[in-house]
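ingest -> validate -> predict -> emit
validate: passed (alphabet ok, no gaps, 154 aa)
predict: started
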Amino acid sequence: MGRRRAAGARLAKAVAAVSVAALAASSTAGCGDLGRAELSRGVESLGALAAQGQLIADGVARDATKSTYARVMSKTLGGEAEHEAEKLADAEPAPGLRGERDAAVQIAGEISQLYSELQTFPSDERHGALVQRHISEVKEEADALTERLTGEEA
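emit:
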């Protein structure tokens, strides 16, 4: 039981650190004109939200996270992903960025849905493993989109 608590504490610290980064990145994107830099910051925040989802899903998959913690964090972070999707969808992309903006909205929606899955099944190891695998794929999509937008490796 001591290992589970230690793993849970490490998970909580990692999620908290990534949450701060995600909030900082997401607070800069908003409605109105959406340029490459703003879109890039929004996608980076989605990558951070996906990374947090990987940590939470890993804890669920290993039965190393309390279901209450997984449920509350999933609700909170899923709401952040949904809010990011709304902000991006409401913004008018700069010329040539509509496809990238639409891809970012889709990524945000997928992240939100995966958090919903964790929120619904916070103590189901099988669901945790499935979400972990899928959210890793979504994070790779976000990283690839960031790379396309910035020309730098994510």
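Strands lie at 33-34, 92-93.
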